[in-house]
Amino acid sequence: MPKPEKIEESPKLEELLDRLNEIQIQRLLQELVAQQPELLDVIERYVNQITSLAPQPQLSKPLRCTTVDPAPWRGQVRQILRDGVRYLEEGWEEDPITEELLEIIGEAQVFTEHEEVNNALVILEAITSNCVDGWDEVYEYGAENYEVASALNEAWCEAILSAELTPEEKVDLQVNLEAWQDEWNADFAMSLEALRQGWDYPQLQQVLQGKITELGTWEGEAPYYADDLALIRLKILDRQERYQKYLYLAQAEGQTQQYLTMLGRLGRVSEAMQSAQTQMSSRQEAFALAQVLREQGSPQQALKIAQTGLSLPGNCQYDLAIWTSELAFELGEGEAALAARVKAFQAKPSFEDYSRVRSLASEAWSNLKVELLDHLRNHQAWGIHSVKVEIFLHEQLIDDAINVVSELRSYDAPLIEQVMDEAVASRPNWVIENACRRAESIMDAGKAQYYYYAVEWLRKARAAYHQAGRKREWSVYRTKLMDTHARKYKLMAMLKQGNLD
């Protein structure tokens, strides 16, 4: 007997889909494919069918003969953006998109560096176009494109300057870059300028022939990206081993570090040393040149440059000072090794460097010790408290250690307790006052989840009372606490079980 037809009470598919927005529909499809992978073939056939009915607009013609298929790169970008939407919907605070996109942009740059420039251009087009097309979805959640667009700008610039482009290809790229720039609100000005100038730009050609003026490679005022563009050109010249042109360009564009280090790499040590006297102006430049000179077998010259660098402005003082000290020690230059290690300690104090200065100083240690301790007392930096405590306790400077931790928050409890353990014999009254104050603030606030820490502070106080021969005062104080907080039953139980008699 045939079964009666069922009455369809469930909503129709159209009604269900009408409740969803575009992103939710995408997530639904992803979830269905995850559960039933065979659906992917059905979806792919349908997509191919409907997209083949009307040709998709293209920003440019294909670029030359290539050996890579851009499809995987397009798919990878789309997947990153889709995953980014999901993460952002779930409330991720960290950026789930930028790092992965920077990674694949870096992979494209590898093709340029290995002189597979046509492949690099195709890949960069796939990455950029799909970033632009899909960014609206992540932009709704506050995702910024600045870092990704900047990386793409640099990658495009290097690829353009590494390629041999036909006039038609230049026009296509210009159309692409300008369209992406407008649609994505990005800045591809450097890449567009590189496309316009190439290597035949008259002012640039003058520089590459050694005819250098104050204007460098520019006819008028240099744009804001001039340094970045110069560094990319230098990278390419280095890769092509066009070293004299590299030096001319570095000199013309004020890229002192690149100029000096290239002289060192080429073995032109005397010229590098002479140029450094008038051109070197920062620790970073000195450190870079010194490292190259050492690698090139000129350690004495490297030491001289490094010592000069320590008196210049800039970053990397600690790293340069450590490097200089170690080189000087290897060369048997004891005084130089000591002076550099002192500078390292002054830049970033540590017990290790304090001990190293002591071993290098020998008979001069007594005077240097006073100088370093005075510096340490006045030094302010994140994370310095533990270094101060370690050194002050090592030198039995209990009062200095107490000054460091007295006003620290209980978040630094291990450090405070370390000082209390050392101070209990000679400064019991400080331990009593500080530990009781911290315990009372927890108990008075009724912070039950922190009662354990209050008991620990009271143990420190009890030890100090006993050490000072004030056992009876401790007993009175404990009784007072019990009376004051009698209704805090959890605390009472902990005080009774905490060996605080």
Helical percentage? over 70%
User: What's the tally of helices?
Assistant: 27
| Cα-based radius of gyration, to the nearest Å | 34 Å
% residues in beta strands? under 5%
Oligomeric composition of the shown chains: single chain
* Structural class estimated from helices and strands: mainly alpha
Uncertain spans: 1-9, 48-63
Largest sheet report: none
Shape: flat
Helix-strand string: HHHHHHHHHHHHHHHHHHHHHHHHHHH
Structure in words:
The protein has 501 residues and is mainly alpha-helical. It starts with 12 loop residues before the first helix and ends with a helix. The longest helix is centred in the N-terminal third of the chain and has 23 residues, at 117-139. The radius of gyration is 34 Å and the shape is flat. The model is unreliable at 1-9 and 48-63 (pLDDT under 50). Among the domains are: 22-33 and 69-198, no CATH class; 316-379; 398-501. It has helices at residues 13-18, 22-35, 39-53, 71-89, 98-113, 117-139, 146-162, 167-184, 189-197, 202-208, 226-239, 243-252, 256-265, 269-279, 283-295, 299-309, 317-330, 334-347, 351-361, 365-378, 384-394, 398-405, 413-423, 428-444, 451-467, 471-484, 489-497. This is SWIM zinc finger domain-containing protein.
